[in-house]
Protein 1
Amino acid sequence: MTYEHLSAMAVFARVVEEGSFSHAARGLGLSKSAVSKQVGRLEDRLGVRLLNRTTRQLSLTEAGTAFYEHCRQLVADAEAAESAVTHLAAAPRGTLRVNAPMSFGQLHVAPALPEFLAAYPELSVEMQLSDRTVDLIEEGFDLAIRIGQLRDSSLIARRLAPLRQVLCAAPSYLAAQGRPEHPHDLKDHECLIYSYLSWGREWRFQGVDGELRVPIRGRLEINNGDALLAAARQGFGIVMLPSFLGADDLKAGRLEPLLQDWCEPAAGGIHAVFPASRNLSPKVRVFVDYLARRFAGQPYWEVEQAETAV
């Protein structure tokens, strides 16, 4: 791929974002004809039409929509690379506004903040814990921690750690109700349901024949993982929890893992997400880098469970 081709991709992305050749040309410091020619040569190279042109407006074709996402990411990556270099000497300062899910934020982000802030005396952190998906730009957050599948393609994401689900129950529940030997046995059990589960009232498992989706039933549905964990500890039912939440209880024997031969499919991972920007701020960069180092490789909560199993 030549430099000219990469440049044309950046020009095309700017045209899409500005909504016209003339606006893009002014922003890029080029003539309108030069911008139009670059997009035209790009379409010729690809052999497809990227834009529908009328006298009043531009609109993306199906191919153009798909191609724009890659161009946008390319530009964002290039800007991030430049920003990483130009901000090396800049000391992070100001207030960093962070949103994180309730359980993960309380257990694994908040405990990391004192060490992080000690390293950056001119920086302060304002963290909001919530299990709802916030609008970063509308609500003024610099970044958010997201668990599971990512949906908002307008955000830049950096993977911090894998996500593993664990099916478990208290020994008292298993003594009274029995231990399921197969996912289909769950139909006869009281299941504790997480309200924000993206696929509704079913749990997913992975067996030798592929994915298995099992409908579940239960009288208790809660929109918070800690509350579900508390109910499971009391022996009220079987719960599907992320390993980062259930690690201590599994290690202590307050909960027992179930159906370990049926691993729940990967659910996207744990990511830091932040708005695409021409200049990633030093405060966002250093915080994301810090979390990535803290959770690098096999996260500490997974290591603790592995040592317990041994």
Note: The CA atoms of residues 12 and 39 lie 6 Å apart.
Protein 2
Amino acid sequence: MLKVKNVEIKNPIVLAPLAGYTNRTFRGIVKEFGVGLVYSEMISAHGIIYDNKKTIELTEVNPKEHPLAMQIFGGEVELLTKAAQYIDKYTDADIIDLNMGCPVRKVLKAESGSKLLTDPEKIYRIVSAVVQNVEKPVSVKIRAGWDHSSINADVVAEAIEKAGASLICIHGRTKSDLYRGKVNLDYIKMVKAAVNIPVIGNGDIRSIEDAEKMFAYTGVDMIMIGRGALGNPWLLRDLVCWYEGKKIPAPPTAREKLALCKRHLDLLVEEKGERTAVLEMRSMAAWYVKGIERTREFKQKLNDVKTKTELHQLIDELERERC
């Protein structure tokens, strides 16, 4: 059993925050596969402060999700502090996470995400202010640095720990890397060596072998899986079984994948309504059919579906052809 301040985490397998994917529905599904901790998708601190309806909806928590880290982003001390206070007082999140690693242009323009990595002193001020104004533990997600000429994850991590955070997650790429190339485990190892608080290693974990390497080489306390879990929560199940020394179950069949895809759709419709759910499931369904033979036509037709019934029929058609 791991502990982050007062939050108990039963195993070190963690679902990453992925914008547009790690909504309440997907997090609830993933928890059924045994993961120790899940992260929400990135939530705008500005949207929270200005009571944006869609933003506030993102802060709702499914009782099945615990423990949950709710991630916010923003570029100013006061903004992030107020948003963190809202999460602390009015949501059922267990951990408040500050995003300081997102490399997306829209986030950078707001002087947030990985833009903050260029100013460790500002990071210290933000984290310190948030920690002092909330009761829940605070975590921070970072990257190795802005680019390869300014690797400073160890300095940033030290500032985060000094400011009072309880947990750090490090993605082993720089902002300039985006998601290109391979994750650099040396950057993750560097952060683990720099601090005494728990560290999560993140990047390119798509198999048990990847997880073994991450743990053995870097010494991290937990590992975070993002894109590898899309349409494939069975990877998370296998990692939990591996960690607990249990027999690894057989891989999912095509029929099992498609059945979960349909269930995911139904649950998402309940959460977000049919129109939004179908739009979001177009991309998620493409992840579910990865590894199933001859799905090119299915993926092309996905772009045309507009209703839950149409998507169900498309999945059923694929099942008849491939199962």
Note: The longest helix spans residues 254-272.
Protein 3
Amino acid sequence: MAKTEANSVFDRLSKSILTDAFRVVMDLEKSRGAVFIDARTGEDYIDFFSFFASNPIGFNHPRLSEPEFEKDLLRVAKIKVSNSDVYTTDLADFISYFHEHFASQFDKLFFIEGGGLGVENALKAAQDWKAQKNLAAGHKTEGGQVLHFKKAFHGRTGYTLSLTNTVPDKTRYFPKFDWPRVTHPSLNFPTTPESLEDVKKREALSIEEIKRAFQDRPHEICAIIIEPIQGEGGDNFVRKEFLQELKRLSLENDALLVFDEVQTGLGITGKVWAYEHFGVKPDLLAFGKKVQVGGCAADLSRLNEVEHVFKVSSRINSTWGGNLTDMLRSLQFMKIIREENLLEHVRKLGEEMLGSLRELSAKEARMTNVRGLGLWMAFDLPDQATRDRYLKSCWANRLMILSCGDRSIRLRPVLNLTKQEAEQGLDRLKKSFDSL
């Protein structure tokens, strides 16, 4: 069969799959850094999208073309090893490096393909823990319920469907559990004494809802799960004091605290994990996207109260246990992050870009609630219709960018975004207001 020409991609794909993706065809060779090249037209796009925040390093970084790395990548790609059953030196290299340099705060790790399944297995770890504790205490419930927040996105798999509540089409008609869902007390920016008082009132409401859920469902709730910063639900921040209160409530009510860092993890906020900004460590942390494989990390301080899933064989597992080819790429990405000091770069460039967005907001009345941490940035527009028109304008100006929430725009650039690429992207972002 002849290879597909770029101009034929959508025609050929539409015969077999739903082709509702972005109307571009990626040139895998010519795309460089944060510059995405459309193989059909040769046009360049500035990438503030990064494959929904899953690509940590710009396209075709020189370190990815090193002969030794390319040789190892090809060697590993020829055989898809079932990592859960057959070990390799490459698996040991990846896990050792990740644990030592990116997850040393945690005792045990679990790997699987996909961030949603990382969340899923963190929930199973909590459910197993709670069930064993309930049985030992003589309680008649297994305690598998998960308390979660409005506007949360935790995936599209079995258990996570009962948690995700952003776009209705993503969960409609699928069977779901009736698990407690509470108010998310999102911050508004810039913060003022009045806005802080308002968010404190909403925090109090949320805390009251949480306490009532534990009272109404005694011994039934195994975990509280939250994204340290909500992503798809609207790039919603909370105060660190609220996360600290969640930790206290989880301890008080014999539940585990789970942080979903599938999107916030591996550096985009200027720290490896977003929770590090808030001084609250979870019992379980789910990861994916930038790590290139999904999974979860566990602090065993409380899990050690039972024979937990990180100790008992095959309580949680999968055939592949993550993808070895992805792991090799991830290892190279992590070395780049450390050796190029990209966390510091993200913090500095993020501050500059956030300052530029605030300056634009001061001149552009339709742009409000500018917020961010590191290179994780967002702003609001007056309503969903205006936001959607603005999003189309950005793409017309060759800026790859995303929406979130009811009326927000989110920026998700790569960690090694250059100052020149940042300026080009911001110029296109500003220009996109002109056609509104």
Note: The chain has a mean pLDDT of 98.
Protein 4
Amino acid sequence: MEPQILVVDDDRDFLEIMKRRLKDLHFRQIHLEEDPFQAASLIETGKPVDLALLDMTMPNMTGLELLNIIKNFSPITECIIITAVDEARAAVTCLQKGAYDYLLKPVSKEDLALSIHRALEHKRLLDLRDIGKQQAVPRLKNKEAFKEIDTTSNRMMRVLREAELHADSDVPVLITGESGTGKELLARAIHQASPRRAHPFTAINMASLNGNLFDAEFFGHTKGAYTGAEKNRAGYLEYTDKGTLFMDEIGLLPLEVQGKLLRFMQDGRYLKLGTSADKHADVRFVAATNTDLEDRMKRRQFRKDLYYRIRGGWLHLPPLRERKKDIPLLIRAFLSAHYDLDKGNFITPEATEILINYDFPGNVRELKAIVQSATNLAQGKPISPRFLPESIHRQKRLKTMMISAGTTPLASLETVEKIHILHAYRQLGKNKSKTARILGIGLNTLRRKLIIYGEK
């Protein structure tokens, strides 16, 4: 379902500006209201609102008073306060009363887009948390679409459930996670769970598309459009019409062609090389990256407007080392491609234990390769430790030596950072604002990291 957005401001011109900006961000269910009392009445009568954008200073009723009414009658509605008054005390009060964010007029398009997307993302996560409270493991309605993803992890199941919710709409989805975590597999599952399942799913490695290649591959070309174009060729957009286009490694798309992708995502029209007439394609986008797009934006390597466009929904896949309980399940799934598992045990408990304790820097992809290699070496015998790669035994010996010496293996910088952030967050009573200030990081950065860590 599309988000229902309510905008309340006594300035009609500002309401029209907000309406245009929201439409530019592909929101369609927009309700504008000049009268805060009328807005309050809508909420009190049960009108579903996912996000409310509220002016702070209005005659007869302040934005803070309206915020209190909204949170009383519809606690699940996220609220963003927008004001011309730069007053720290007012901002703190609004946040304490339940506002998600506090923006100063004039609000830039980028700040507005970022705040809205994160507020809606926060609402989705809270909805999923409520599902998790009702049942230990969230249930998928379309299990068939997600059958290729093996997991018993509550954290992974919540990711899959959120993916299923996104599948019903055409909102672009960004999937993040380390290499080998299964981003393309998840993208295919979203496609299979969507109304577009009968149409093509096309996967593209965006890192390989430079300027000229991007135009030819994405938009297609006619015969003779350029040297070497010996025949007409449909581009990815034409081929994938009414289907899903999976853009892998979106973070490595060359900067010089990012604007071309953005223009198509904005209006759905493109120009095939060698023609002068616009063509239209109806394509749903799912993008994936293992790079930090926010960092690339700071380095001016990735366009902010493209980032806001592709990140309609955000799904983060945890690394395999954070879902150890899934390892035996995955081993069994990979072995089933070679053996009839009902006829015996094809891996020893010792080998399974070694694999469970391994960190898998290559994640699920690495586990699959290890099982396939060990299967070839075992030649029908049960996989024992001697059939596992030397790198796994080397890590096991290193850990044993360190424990014997009274030390522990050095953790990665990423792990140390995670431990430090979570320790501070919990010590400060899960107060995000205070934690961000103490750690010297931005509040949005802290929110993003807590979501990645699976911290509610």
Note: DSSP finds 19 helices and 14 strands in the chain.
